[in-house]
Amino acid sequence: MSDQLIPLFTAFVGFVSVLLAGYGLLGYLSGASESARLKERVSGTTVKRSDALTAPIGSALSGVVDFFGRLGTKIGPTESAEIDKGRMRLVQAGLRKPDSHKIFQGVKGVLAVALAGGFLLYRFLLSPDMTMTMTGFGTVLMATLGVYAPEYWLTKKVNKRKLTVSDELPDALDLLVVCVESGMGLDQAVDRVCHEMRRSGPIISSEFKLLTLELRAGKSRVEALRSLAARVGLDDLNSLTSLLIQADAFGISVGRTLRVYSDAMRVKRSQRAEEKAAKMPVLLLLPLVAFILPALFVAILGPAVIMSMDMFIKMNSR
Predict the structure, then answer these.
(1) 76 near 83, Cβ under 8 Å?
(2) The CATH number of the domain where 254 resides is what?
(3) Which of the 8 DSSP states describes residue 290?
(4) Which one of 4, 55, 66, 149 counts the least CB within 10 Å of its CB?
(5) What is the pLDDT of residues 32-52, one digit of tens each?
(6) Which residue ranges traverse the bilayer (predicted)?
């Protein structure tokens, strides 16, 4: 094949590929609409076209999730202590499906194999001169990255959720103080706060909702409060639950306890904000040096450098 025919052949292959992809998309859309009409005839209900189009994608995603779950069951830890520890970390991150632990382990395994396989593919196709030592080291490094990258993501997600809860907790405590001092019981006050903070504090509202559901299911208040502290994993919330348990056991005023702790939490939140504000000049130093000062130097010294170059050129021409 001559060099002049290669661009024409490439354009023809691209055109055929786009044409086949278009025909496949049209066939998929027509098949989805046909299945929607059949479902309407059989069930006697109206099926949305968008639901019919996204149903194959949802089934494919559920199949992938099931595969991750089965793989995580085989390669995950078998000790009950390790399983409970991993499941608790997922709960603290807000991932609370029954099979979240298995799916997470499966994702780690697939990611490790995918990264190691991708590196080997790169080595044999694009870098055949790489030594076996570097190949083995790179493969192990990629597999390790695939195992520990989800752990790092999970740790960051847990810390972010804890920080959000620590910011929402003082407002929730203020509402609890108002509700308790107005004559409500603690259980009713928690239920009221979870409804009032659905928009301003969605995470603490969901945690209080679970606390209310556990109390309604028959769980004792002590066990429900300890479960709340374990689900969140925040030290401030652990201290709060301990205070509430002691106040309930010794007959101390719950409203006074909540008011004192609410003031302490609000002061702590303001101190954390002041700490972040104090760190801002140090954090701004790097972008200032890397981006702003070079542009400023070019704007200030650029004309002088150009004039100096013109002067030296004129002096040399003489």
Answers:
(1) yes
(2) 1.20.81
(3) I
(4) 4
(5) 455 555 555 555 555 455 544
(6) 6-29, 106-126, 132-154, 282-306
Q: Which of 130, 152, 179 is the last residue of a domain?
A: 130
- 15 and 94: one domain? yes
Closest CA to 101 of 79, 75, 69, 71: 69
Q: What percent of the chain has pLDDT over 70?
A: 81
**Mean pLDDT along residues 183-187:** 84
The answer to whether residue 287 sits within a structural domain is: no
Domain count of the fold of the chain? 2
Identify the sign of the CA torsion 218, 222, 224, 227.
negative
CB 102 within 8 Å of CB 72: yes
76 domain-assigned:
yes
145 in a structural domain: no
Give the integer Cα–Cα distance in Å for 277 and 287: 17
Whether residue 120 sits in one domain with residue 209: no
Q: What does 40-51 look like in DSSP terms, one character per residue?
A: HHHHSS---HHH
Find how far residue 145's CA is from the centre of its chain.
18
One-letter amino acid for residue 41 of the chain: R
**Mean pLDDT, rounded, of the chain:** 80
Residue-wise pLDDT tens digits, 46-99: 545 554 445 556 666 677 777 778 877 887 788 888 888 888 999 989 888 888
Q: Where in the sequence is the domain holding 209, given as residue range(s)?
A: 164-270
- 150 in any annotated domain: no
